Amino acid sequence: MRLSRYFLPVLKETPSEAQIVSHRLMLRAGMIKQASAGNYSWLPLGYKVLQNIERIVHEEQKRAGHIPILMPTLQSADLWRESGRYDAYGPEMLRMQDRHGRDMLYGPTNEEMVTDIFRAHVGSYKDLPLTLYHIQWKFRDEIRPRFGVMRGREFLMKDGYNFDLTKEDALHAYNRHLVSYLRTYERMGLQAIPMRADSGPIGGDDTHEFLVLAETGESEVFYDSEITDLKFGDRDIDYDSVEQCQGVLEEFTSRYARTDETHDEELFNQIPEERRRVARGIEVGQIFYFGTKYSEPMGATVTDREGNQVPVHMGSHGIGVSRLVGALIEANHDDKGIIWPEGVTPFHCGIVNVKQGDAEADAACEDLYKALSAAGLEPLYDDREDRAGAKFATMDLIGLPWRITVGPRGLKNGVVEVTSRRTGESEELAPEAAVARIREIYGV
Amino acid sequence: MRLSRYFLPVLKETPSEAQIVSHRLMLRAGMIKQASAGNYSWLPLGYKVLQNIERIVHEEQKRAGHIPILMPTLQSADLWRESGRYDAYGPEMLRMQDRHGRDMLYGPTNEEMVTDIFRAHVGSYKDLPLTLYHIQWKFRDEIRPRFGVMRGREFLMKDGYNFDLTKEDALHAYNRHLVSYLRTYERMGLQAIPMRADSGPIGGDDTHEFLVLAETGESEVFYDSEITDLKFGDRDIDYDSVEQCQGVLEEFTSRYARTDETHDEELFNQIPEERRRVARGIEVGQIFYFGTKYSEPMGATVTDREGNQVPVHMGSHGIGVSRLVGALIEANHDDKGIIWPEGVTPFHCGIVNVKQGDAEADAACEDLYKALSAAGLEPLYDDREDRAGAKFATMDLIGLPWRITVGPRGLKNGVVEVTSRRTGESEELAPEAAVARIREIYGV
Q1: Which residues of chain B make contact with A160, given a CB cutoff of 8 A?
Q2: Is the torsion defined by CA of A361, A366, A369, A375 positive or negative?
Q3: Which ipTM did the prediction report?
Q4: Which CATH architecture has domain B349-442?
Q5: Does residue A83 surpass a pLDDT of 70?
Q6: Which residue, among B12, B33, B36, would best test binding to A if mutated, counting the most A CBs under 10 Å from its CB?
Q7: Cys-Cys with A300: which of A66, A111, A295, A408 at CB 3.0–4.6 Å?
Q8: HEC secondary structure over B136-154
């Protein structure tokens, strides 16, 4: 993309309404604009990051054998009356009536609706196991929306639902989700720690939240420092293997890690003192096993091997897609701006022409732009008539992990400069070598 | 995808509530499930087609230089009060209040919100031209929703908005949209004819609707038969070229083609009688030029070359993404089921194992499955224990354009069968040649 043809409305001043760094940087970098309290429009740069996160979530869900669907944002109140949650849910549920006076609501979650799909179409244990998921906008009428997309009202979430014949099978689905979540977050360059949590309005026995450590996190967390040394890495997991998934769960959850909701001081104090950590975390996902809590009242049953009608065992599993954009920034920034991990960056690299209008510099930039694009990469080329300093500041603010700087002086020596946003280190390379370097980084 | 691990709830019986063929076939093929009146969940097969259409629309929008953003589904009533449309819009607008009693609405369109983004961030003619678009769910509270996704209440739409300094520039944006729409529909295997239309609640002077001819269309259309011979084809269009875009517009709109709203009997009768056609059509898109209708009341101005503040000239341009799924089926089906055009098919081909459990047939199917997947194609392999006839009926119903049939008898002669869903014609080929044939069809 050529910046002269893009829409990147960066702000010079720090917006006063933003209390946390991710909100400030998203506004300054022209990623979002508030549409109304807690509701945001995603401007081009922000939307690209959101789409990258969405793509990774889809890919990892499908890898785990989960099947994508899409349920509507608005739901009929009738389904929620069946489960008993229509009256139980508080004022965070946005309710409305259509022109015929029928009660509707903007879905904050989809247990009822997906159970209704299941009961209409599945009747036999032979069709199990089944996990359906979608990535769809939800609404939660926060009394005091704040922190930008981290605690907005309309938010994008992946929610998945497993249907299994037995509790044992459903616990495998739980474990499988835990494994695939670890992999999902790592691909985004995030360490998200599974912590024993409280089940809240979803209900159920087993639940883990995934937390990203960050000073601005809304939850206080308590953990054994050994847990931050764990890496999921490039393991070749068979998601059908009960043993493999169980093994990963044990590895990642056997050490103490809890949010303040479930914190147990006595257990915590059994960790050697030098490994005890108290910090803050941002919740970016949660998994639940809740058995027959919805299938029983809603009649979601299957015939088992012996011909009996039994309610299915279920769980639900969420990833906060729009919130992750904020969490990523909280975990990856410095005082100049954002530092995107390569896995989610909106553009693979920036090209800064320090002397726009200089024939040689312009031509070199064009060549780099074309070579990178031909390799399947998306560079952002700052081709505007502007001071080099202003161009550097913009690139630093929007956080592209790599920058190629092109100027007449370097070109005289046959080189351009490749700079890492994270370390600030630069390397002088011939233009072709610069392209090869960026391709190598992204493995294309 | 292996059918034994997929969720494809096909129905044996024709649902009685469905009045038109696309609605019937979408229910029977397990593509959608009604969630409430006029609101649908997209089941796996339907969601795949929806995503394919969305992808094509994104690709063609970006090719035309338009920039993707994403605005929220819910909007504040305040913006609509500024434009004067809050009171003017009828009961099709779904209105609600949040917990603080603030008036909100589920956006039926986004002229106000995008104008608000523009006025907040753009101040100079130097930042023009600019076209922002998004693909987002909308809501229209139809008094009597029907025809499935063709006239649902929650629907997915691409809406784009151009901002230009002059009327002339805005008319180029209008033409550019017309060209890119022609290309978009053709890639989906659809002929959509631009017809002079009425501007309705969007307002404005110039507007064309794009209509797909189909017996079940809601509009009566009148046209010169020469228009159906026009093909956009594989033209290499420069979207920046005023002349080229104007040329395409003239080519595709100079012949008579109007909906009943703008039909002019006198003009129509000037066409030679043998070329006069009266038919029915489904609207799948519309483009508008409306000048300063929103920019003036909302203060969306820029500084022009002379330093004057002038309101920008705008237009808006929509493609009915979810409705296209229905329109595609209306235009592509027979009495056995759907016939997907290759551009949007949910799976590139089906593999039918006529004797599941036969070692040789199973192995041949596995090999085909792996070879096609390795080529980047997505086959749907019916690996269930079921009669061959039932498997064929399912493949015909869900409409994959190509089927490979594998059975012990053919394998004895070293062949499998490749069948076209559209023509019914079959070819016997060695398995490797069958893979090559499918790859050739999709150009991979």
Answers
A1: none
A2: negative
A3: 0.96
A4: 3-Layer(aba) Sandwich (3.40)
A5: yes
A6: B36
A7: A295
A8: EEEECCCCCCECHHHECCE
